[in-house]
Amino acid sequence: MNYYQWNWKHYEKITYCAFCDGGNYDFVKNQCNYNPPSGHLYRYVCDGNCWDISFNDDISIFSDTYVNGQRVVGKQVARAPYDDKTPYYFELEQRSITKTAYTFFLSLANVIQNSGTFFDIPAETRFSLNIKSTSNPDEKILGVFNVYSVKKRIFYIDRTKGVPSNEFPLYKIIPGETFTCDFPCKSTVSCFEGPTRTKIAPVGWVQ
User: Fold this and answer.
1) More confident residue, 126 or 78
2) How far apart are CA 19 and CA 4, in angstroms?
3) Cα–Cα distance, 203 to 194 (Å, whole number)
4) Cα torsion 78, 205, 31, 43: sign
5) Adjacent-strand bridge partners of 44
6) What is the pTM of this model?
7) Which pLDDT score, from 0 to 100, does residue 129 have?
8) d(CA 36, CA 22)
9) pLDDT digits over 155-194, tens only?
């Protein structure tokens, strides 16, 4: 019997790296300055290439109990929003996980489905199957030690195919006014690396 887990990442190239609602951008502190507030929303252009990163926020797992090793067909692992007609960059990761990990994620998914989010999990829940506290054996731990094999694949989803003629994308509206000023005044903001943003082009980016 095999057990699988799917995770995905989406990279979207962005134009604006900061939005200051009611203030200007402080290029020393690298944050919006609301003293004194201007009462206006300014958006600041990135000073180079920059991508926002989004991830799946659900648990997508599968046991081949009923397919017995056959090809898995029709399993939905993600959805691409129809907010543009441009190709949708999508990095899919498939993990082959252990039964212990599958049991943990299945229990976690059931609790989240019933209670809402990770933060709503009851305090008395004891999901940890292979992690124990050496200093406090009675401590309740939410986690699992997981070793897995993984395969990754890059997709460019064509969002113009299979769309009914009377359906149109819900384009994102970027609020605010683009901040501009004359040299030597600075008007562009750096793309700071972080969990949800990068200036390094994703693997396979062709746009």
Assistant:
1) 78
2) 40
3) 17
4) negative
5) 18
6) 0.81
7) 65
8) 9
9) 999 999 989 989 999 999 999 999 999 888 999 999 999 9
Alpha carbons 70 and 4: distance in angstroms, whole number:
13
Distance spanning both ends of the chain, measured CA to CA: 40
What is d(CA 156, CA 33) in angstroms, rounded to the nearest whole number? 39
- My answer on whether omega of the bond before 175 falls inside 30° of 0, hence cis, is no
Using an 8 Å Cβ cutoff, are 115 and 122 in contact?
A: yes
159-193: b or e for each residue (b if 16 or more CB lie within 10 Å)? beeeeeeeeeeeeeeeeeeebeeeeeeebbbebee
Strand partners, 61: 5
Separation CA 144–CA 129 (nearest Å): 6
Q: Please give the pLDDT value at position 121.
A: 55
Rg (CA), the chain: 22
Residue with tokens 């969990």: 195
What CA–CA distance (Å, rounded) separates 122 from 112? 10
